[in-house]
Amino acid sequence: MKARTAMVFQLGLFSPNTESGLAITTVPERWRATWDNNLRLGRLADEVGIDFLLPVARWTDWGPHTDFHHSVLDPLTWATGLLAHTRRLRIFTTVHTAFHHPVVAAKQLATADHVSGGRVGLNIVAGWHAPEYQMLGLSLPDDHDSRYALAQEWWDIVKRIWSSAEPFDHDGRFFQLKRVIGNPKPYNGHSIPIINAGSSPQGRSFAARNADRAFTVVGGPQDGAAVVTAIREEAATQGRTVGVYTLGHVVCRPTRRQAEEFLAYYSDEHADWPAVDEVMRLQGLHAQSFTPQMLQTYRGRFAAGHGSCPLVGDPDDVADQIAAFAAAGFDGIALSFLNYTDDLGYFAAEVMPRLQTRRIHTGPDIASSP
Ligand SMILES: Cc1cc2nc3c(=O)[nH]c(=O)nc-3n(C[C@H](O)[C@H](O)[C@H](O)COP(=O)(O)O)c2cc1C
Fold first, then answer.
1. Which residue, judged by its Cα, is nearest atom 3 of ligand 1?
2. What is the pLDDT of residues 205-244, one digit of tens each?
3. Helices 75-85 and 35-48 meet at what angle, rounded to 10?
4. How far is the CA of 6 from the centre of ligand 1 (A)?
5. Whose CA is nearest to atom 28 of ligand 1?
């Protein structure tokens, strides 16, 4: 892995493949995850200097009484389509290791990498969402150890396919495979960068062993600094360096008052509270992305941006809030907006130059090989 370049901080967009993005709200301005909207967004993001796009893999909805995530574009097909229509940014796809066979996924990812000249990335999800397992006729293992053991075996097979010139057999705990071979390999011999966003001890240690980037939800830059240190220290025990990223939802308007009023409009007055409560209930049952304390106090943050950090105010406020994450040691942040295409132009025109003047340089990949 390449060494970290000082001051480089990456900006990404999170979840535009999902209806309503990360905002659990009923307002009509919310994001519509059509292909046309995503295509416009991908081209705009490429043009204004956004570094990466990150989808959400969601197979079921959140129940009959909500539109939130009612429609979700498949992340791999979405990423491959957008990679064909963009020139510069990295586009991640997301796989659930319990749902995607590693031999199939290795070929699909290598193909997307060729489509884009080496710009695909992979978010590996070990799984947590019990209704999706049930929909697929599977059961979610109760223990994190089994979930991450499967994820490790899955990733070891994919890596071996990408590096083996010769067929191999695999006789493991979860997969027994004969004469495995896969071509093409990833584009031009390079490695596809890996994300992991697990927050349990098993998830953190999976990221330390395997990932180029660890994504983590934090309360803000203050508590985030300790999380960055902990993740880096765990990676160092494996002799590795891992970039640490977090999430934020942006409401940026010419004045702070306008931004706060708009935030209150969509995430309080018109929040989709039944869906907020269902998302938080399921997160609390099976995932450790949010601490119990976060799940007791973050109802508003869930309505505004699925529990991510608020980046709210005028352009100086928002630039200061992002700069604080860079100062806390983060390597980047994945952003969401109520309506990505309506809001990204203003963010690019007003906030991104202010980041430059704060000596926060958005820039090229810091991590591209394990
Ligand atoms: C940035 C980010 C992206 C994620 N993307 C997905 C996703 O697309 N699909 C999904 O089911 N879970 C997703 N998750 C959930 C985690 O990857 C992980 O499965 C969850 O945190 C449970 O693992 P843990 O208990 O180890 O934290 C995401 C989490 C974060 C923070």
1. 197
2. 999 999 999 999 999 999 999 999 999 999 999 999 999 9
3. 50
4. 28
5. 197
CATH architecture of 10-357: Alpha-Beta Barrel (3.20)
Distance 273 CA to ligand 1 centre (A): 22
Percentage of the chain modeled with pLDDT above 70: 96
Residue 56 CA to ligand 1 center (angstroms) comes to 9
CA-closest residue to ligand 1 atom 30 = 197
| C-alpha neighbours within 13 Å on the C-beta side of residue 279 | 29
Q: Which atom of ligand 1 is nearest to the CA of 58?
A: 9
DSSP bridge partners of 335: 13, 248
The domain segmentation of the chain, as residue ranges, is 10-357
